[in-house]
Amino acid sequence: MTGGLGVVGLERLSLNQATVKHLSLPEAVAVCQRHGIPAIGLWRDRVAETGVAQAAAAVRRAGLRVSSLCRGGFLTDADPGARRAALADNRAALAEAAGIGAPTLVLVCGGLPPGHRDLGLARRMVRDALGELVPDAQRLGIRLGIEALHPMFCADRCVISSLGEALDLAEQFPVDAVGVVVDTYHIWWDARMLAEIARAGPRIVSYQVSDWVLPLPQDTLLGRGHLGDGAIEFGPISAAVAAAGYLGDVEVEIFNAGIWAAPADETASTVRERFAAVLGGG
């Protein structure tokens, strides 16, 4: 941490691969290296293209850290065979995280089970699946990061819609195995956000940032923007995360069709500049 509480130095900047979605893993690593971005958040599809060992080697050669691996989860299928397959996939994801040196596997827990409207059932499925995955996470030394998603994604992507819900779930398991992801895009609206960040304390395993820009696109998943372009006040959130004790990497994770279409070097340059200006107090 540099400067005052809530001020985040560039030495903690991580470029989540989703921000440069169309780049291969070696290309994304090279962009980080060219722009002095010291860490990268990897996605499983790009790791699979490259191979786990080759991906880990590419990151090491570039002198980067891996801040997280996205993503595991989708644990809410009621079909027994599909449930077994989901658990097997998450165990594979944990092994991949260990192989590339990621401390955290980010979980998007899953929406309503196909053909069901029972939110309670879906949330119990998530809890039960976590219970099955915790021994694997502890064996591999990887923390499962429950990411609360904005309520508009509750039906199809994540039945955990607030940081408080994510904490209620995480606290049922050992702190070394299960934590929470603080993602500004998903939780900035919540009146209890700052109190829940304080409550999270050592449960915070990742801090992800992007802005909420209007108008929302037809595909609301792509409604994120560069820091400073939208509605989110980042200072109080960063201060709360710091006060809670989190001093790890801060990932810029942007889903936006226009940003994806821009040259990757232009995007990386903007990411770095905005990070310094908005989070670093520059």
Write the layout of secondary structure elements.
Blueprint: E1 13-16, H1 25-34, E2 39-43, H2 44-50, H3 52-61, E3 65-73, H4 80-100, E4 104-108, H5 119-140, E5 143-147, H6 163-170, E6 178-183, H7 184-187, H8 193-200, E7 204-209, E8 211-212, E9 224-225, H9 234-243, E10 250-252, H10 257-261, H11 264-279
Parallel strand pairs: 1-2, 1-10, 2-3, 3-4, 4-5, 5-6, 6-7, 7-10
Antiparallel strand pairs: 8-9
Helix pairs in contact: 4-5, 8-9
Quick overview of this protein structure:
The chain is 43% helix and 17% strand. The chain is built from eleven helices and ten strands.
Number of domains: 1
| Total beta-strand segments | 10
CATH C-level label:
Alpha Beta
Helix content: 40-55%
Strand content bin: 15-25%
Rg over C-alpha atoms, rounded to the nearest angstrom:
18 Å
The CATH architecture comes to Alpha-Beta Barrel
Q: Helical segment tally? A: 11
Computed structural class: alpha/beta
Main sheet properties:
8 strands, parallel, barrel
CATH superfamily: Divalent-metal-dependent TIM barrel enzymes
Biggest sheet, spatial arrangement of strands: 1-2-3-4-5-6-7-10
User: Which H/E pattern describes the elements?
Assistant: EHEHHEHEHEHEHHEEEHEHH
The quaternary structure here is single chain
Shape: globular
Straight-line N-to-C gap: 14 Å
Task: Provide mean pLDDT, rounded.
Answer: 96
Provide the CATH topology.
TIM Barrel
Q: Which residues form runs of ≥5 with pLDDT under 50?
A: none
